[in-house]
Amino acid sequence: MLYQHEFKHWLGRINNFFNSQIYKQLLRTNIVIDGADTGVQHFPGKHNIAIAIMSDGVNIFNQGSKETNTCWPIMAQNLNLPPEECTQMCNLIPLGVIPRPNKPKDFDSFLILFVEECIDLAKGIDTYNAMTGQTFTLCVHPVIISGNMQAIKYLQNFKVQMVVSPAVSA
């Protein structure tokens, strides 16, 4: 779990999130919650976890329907593990499943508890370390959201609108 803290940055090479410009920018910015600056920078100590949120439409029923996605699982990936470990199925964290065939009217209703938990975790929570017998403040930062086009559209509240070409006159 100390992969991020012990990571050695290589100039001119991006081999994971912790060598990216986004991560370097986060190190210089404070955490903002509900528009209020907390005065605490991202990743201030070794007990900070970066996570990626992933969602992708999955067809779990093969019934010959035209629908290609029957559900959207939502998973978290702990980026504080080495790359060869964080991508293993046993290290993915299931957060929930959004059902189909009808898309939910309010996609956010499936995420509200997770968002509230992320707010608490960004502020930091006291955590007990059984190895050392001491407590420390654990912070978790969702830094990446990925998925297929449909999942990202709903995760970011995009609305699909019909466009009429201005070159066509009625």
Describe the structure.
The protein has helices spanning 3-6, 21-27, 83-86, 112-123, 149-155; strands at 30-33, 36-41, 48-55, 71-78, 92-99, 125-129, 134-147. The protein has a domain at 45-155. Mean pLDDT is 77; it is low at 160-170. With 170 residues, the protein is of the alpha+beta class. Strands 5-4-3-7-6 form a 5-stranded mixed β-sheet. Strands 1-2 form a two-stranded antiparallel sheet. It contains 5 helices and 7 strands, in the order H-H-E-E-E-E-H-E-H-E-E-H. This is Transposase family tnp2. InterPro entries: Transposase_21 (IPR004242). It holds the Pfam family Transposase_21.
Summarize this structure briefly:
The protein has 170 residues and is an alpha+beta fold. The chain has a domain at 45-155. The protein is built from 5 helices and 7 strands.
